[in-house]
Amino acid sequence: MSQKNEILPLLLTVMVTSALLGGIAWWLLNKTFPNLNDRSNSSSSSNNQISETLGAVKNVPEGLFNYGGSTTWAPIRKEVDFIIQQVWPKFRLVYTDPTTGTPGTGSGIRMLIENQLAFSQASRSLKDEEIQRAQQRGLTLKEVPVAIDGIAIAVHPDLPVSGLTITQLKDIYTGKIRNWRQVGGPNLAIIPYSRRKEDGGTVEFFIDQVLEKADFGSNIKYVYSTTPALRKVSQNLGGIYYASAPEVVPQCGIKTLPLGKSENKLVAPYQEPSIPSSQCPQKRNQLNELAFQQAIRAQYLRHNCVRYFALI
């Protein structure tokens, strides 16, 4: 068995225990989504043994393993990689950025197919063309859903806007709404930030499900990744950005907006009351776990599983 085969049970064990790091998601959309497990080419994860603790995992390989992919995984990596290194110091993980382009789901899968990574983390399911490209190289990809994640909307902490509807959010990113006054805010130009579509699964999901496959507006400002995007929002009163909720909600330099299908049914991605930036980082906003749990029960989130892929 190759080292890539051997790391599958370990990584599945670790990442399933990290599922609680997921956040408020688009349960507000109330749409029907495909079952991502329904793939004839992808092996089921049911055969993987889930151990009670990391220390109970057997046959952990030794060596250096490169991995990469979705930036949505950043909060999970921060917590889990440290624990892995403490329990299994000879199982060494190195997050690897692409040599060209930006880090994200698509680039991670490409690097996996090109044998640059031992496994890749993703925020969407495999595309048919990715499966075909792997098969052309004599490879089979194994796809394992491990957690549910969602998107939060970040704006400047001083922006006097209490929330947005999904329609308003769509209109902002398609260019129909360009001034905060149009959504009850000040007379101030909106500066919508986004990564490019090819940069990550989160962007693809946002375009498909929020914009309903419409194009971005001509006023979109493109950014390399979430970190510089949040920095820009914190420096520009008119800025707005979307990203994985666990990445955004705890940040000090921004605030996240409640969202809803209508203005009288807005749901906050954070636990209320909101903690102002002046009290951060001593106190940080926490994810609204209740809304997250309700989303799971309603089964509106099955489309947006956080995953990792590996060669088998």
Q: Give the uncertain stretches in residue-range form.
A: 1-46, 299-305
The CATH superfamily of the largest domain bears the name: Periplasmic binding protein-like II
> What's the overall average pLDDT, rounded?
79
Order of helices and strands: HEHEHEHEEEHEHEHEHEEHE
**Number of distinct helices:** 9
Helix content: 25-40%
Rounded to an integer, what's the Rg over CA atoms? 20 Å
In percent, how much strand structure appears in the residues?
15-25%
Could you walk me through the main structural features you see in this protein, from its secondary elements to its overall organization?
The chain crosses the membrane at residues 7-29. It comes from Microcystis viridis NIES-102. With 312 residues, this protein is an alpha/beta fold. It contains 9 helices and 12 strands. The strands form 3 sheets. The protein has a 5-stranded mixed beta sheet with strand order 2-1-3-12-4. β7, α6 and β8 form a beta-alpha-beta unit. It is globular, with a radius of gyration of 20 Å. 41% of the residues are buried. The model is unreliable at 1-46 and 299-305 (pLDDT under 50).
Could you name the key traits of this structure?
alpha/beta, five-stranded mixed β-sheet, disordered N terminus, 29% helix, D-Maltodextrin-Binding Protein, domain 2, 312 residues, single chain
What's the topology here?
Blueprint: H1 3-16, E1 63-69, H2 74-87, E2 91-95, H3 105-113, E3 119-122, H4 128-136, E4 141-148, E5 151-155, E6 164-165, H5 166-174, E7 191-194, H6 201-210, E8 221-222, H7 226-235, E9 239-244, H8 245-248, E10 255-256, E11 259-260, H9 289-298, E12 305-311
Parallel strand pairs: 1-2, 1-3, 6-11, 7-8, 7-9
Antiparallel strand pairs: 3-12, 4-12, 5-9, 5-10
